[in-house]
Write a structure and sequence with these properties.
With 136 residues, the protein is mostly helical. Helices cover 73% and strands 9% of the residues. Strands 1-2 form a two-stranded antiparallel sheet. It is elongated.
C-alpha cells in the first residue's frame, strides 16, 4: 500500500466513509501481515525443533566428549558441556520469540476479521458459496 493510502486510512475520522479501494488495500495489507507472521512462526518452529533434537541427542553424552557446532558458517570444535547450555539457551530464546509472534499474530488476525466484518468484505470463495446457497 502506498504512503498516501496509509495516510488516508489513518487520517480518516471514524464516522467519515472510506472509499472502497482504501478499504480493500487496508484489508490486503492486514492479510499480508498475517501471512508474514505465519511464515516467520513456521520458520522459528522448525529452528526450535532442530534445537530440541540436538539437545535431546547431546544430553545422554559425556560432557567431555568432542562435539562440533556451526557458528556463522564455520564448524567449530567444542565439548558437549560447552555446547549443550548454548543450545538450550537458544531454544528457550526461540520459544520466547515464538510466543510473542503468536500473540502478535492473534491480535493481527482479530484486527483483520474486525475490519472484514466492519466493511462487510467477502472473499471470492465466500461470495460463490452465498450464490450457491441462494440458488438452492
Amino acid at each position: 500500500m502506498s504512503d498516501a493510502a496509509k495516510t488516508a486510512v489513518s487520517a480518516a475520522p471514524v464516522d467519515q466513509p472510506i472509499d472502497e479501494k482504501t478499504v480493500l488495500a487496508k484489508y490486503k495489507e492486514l492479510q499480508s501481515n498475517c501471512n508474514q507472521l505465519i511464515n516467520k512462526i513456521t520458520e522459528l518452529e522448525f529452528d526450535r525443533n532442530e534445537h530440541r533434537l540436538v539437545e535431546d541427542t547431546l544430553k545422554p553424552l559425556e560432557t567431555t566428549r568432542r562435539a562440533y557446532r556451526l557458528v556463522g558458517g564455520v564448524l567449530v570444535e567444542r565439548t558437549v558441556g560447552e555446547i549443550l547450555p548454548a543450545v538450550t539457551t537458544n531454544k528457550e530464546n526461540i520459544q520466547m520469540v515464538l510466543d510473542n509472534l503468536q500473540k502478535n499474530m492473534e491480535a493481527k488476525q482479530k484486527e483483520t476479521s474486525e475490519w472484514k466484518a466492519k466493511y462487510n468484505i467477502k472473499t471470492q470463495q465466500e461470495a460463490q458459496a452465498m450464490q450457491r446457497a441462494q440458488q438452492q
